[in-house]
Design goal:
The protein is of the alpha/beta class. The chain is built from 8 helices and 8 strands. It has helices at about 30-40, 65-80, 100-105, 110-125, 135-145, 170-185, 200-210, 215-230, and strands at about 20-25, 45-50, 85-90, 110, 125-130, 155-160, 190-195, 215. It has a 4-stranded parallel sheet with strand order 2-1-3-4, with helices on both faces. A 4-stranded parallel sheet has the order 6-5-7-8, with helices on both faces. Strand 3 (about 85-90), helix 3 (about 100-105) and strand 4 (about 110) form a beta-alpha-beta unit. Helix 2 runs parallel beside helix 3 (about 100-105) and helix 6 packs across helix 7. It is globular, with a radius of gyration of 17 Å.
């Protein structure tokens, strides 16, 4: 269970037999399937990928308003799900409730925004982010700043492709991301992060075209979650990520348990 009352535990997860919940922040079933496929492609043999998506909320998260609604929907999902898991990868680029989820759960919670940036900083001196719409750049910047990862980010470049159109025309998508990537490289980036989930196919093509490392957040997130579980260091249970206070929350959760 993953509610504040009965919370999932990292504990002894066995000899690499683990389940990682990969949580799409929106309600697009197609995007959830794409994210799950990317996660399974890099997961170790003993890792089961459990794809989850909110029961309600935006079809795509593009801006602060969508992000707050998505965060509530993701928390509602994790409060009420009965599916067991050993770690969570939050597969929404930009903050969609990660701090609340870290309070809620007793398992490692990896946000793909953080994971991609950390991965990129191990590969290059400065990194850039290539994302969908210009309106999300402020949100991504704030998320990186909150996570302490903004100092080495030199550019956040937008393709002006809405999230749900990215998969419609792969060549157009790759061309748009290539243009954005070249702008980030011109600004000083020697590694790039893809600022949206479900871009594994785009990543492979961009590496060939741009000649710099390109990091997919879901890939980085799954590998980081596996590493945290293998290390067995646990998660904080004091400070800001201690369990939520016991109190009445009328109307919450929204979904039945």
């Amino acid at each position: 269970m993953s509610s504040p009352e009965v919370r999932a535990s990292a504990g002894d997860v066995g000899a690499r037999e683990v389940t990682i919940a990969v949580v799409n922040c929106n309600t697009s079933e197609r995007m959830t399937a794409e994210i799950a496929a990317g996660a399974r492609a890099v997961a170790s043999p003993g890792t089961t990928i459990l794809p989850l998506q909110p029961r309600w909320g935006p079809r795509s998260a593009e801006g602060f308003y969508d992000s707050f609604v998505s965060a509530a929907a993701v928390l509602d999902l994790l409060v009420t799900t009965s599916e067991p898991f050993d770690a969570v990868v939050m597969a929404g680029y930009g903050e969609h409730g990660r701090e609340g989820v870290r309070e809620l759960l007793d398992v490692p919670v990896v946000d793909i925004t953080e994971a991609a940036a950390m991965h990129a900083m191990l590969l290059g001196h400065r990194y850039g982010v290539v994302t969908t719409l210009a309106r999300v750049r402020g949100q991504i910047s704030d998320s990186l700043l909150t996570a302490g990862l903004a100092a080495r980010c030199v550019a956040i470049e937008a393709t002006e492709l809405p999230v749900l159109e990215v998969a419609h025309d792969l060549e157009r998508t790759v061309a748009a991301f290539e243009d954005a990537g070249r702008r980030a490289i011109a600004a000083g980036a020697d590694a790039l992060c893809l600022g949206c989930a479900g871009f594994t196919a785009v990543r492979d093509l961009l590496v060939d075209r741009l000649g710099v490392p390109v990091v997919d957040g879901v890939t980085a997130g799954v590998l980081m979650a596996e590493g945290l579980l293998a290390a067995g260091s646990g998660v904080p249970r004091t400070g800001p990520y201690d369990a939520p206070l016991a109190k009445d929350r009328p109307g919450w959760p929204v979904s039945p348990a």
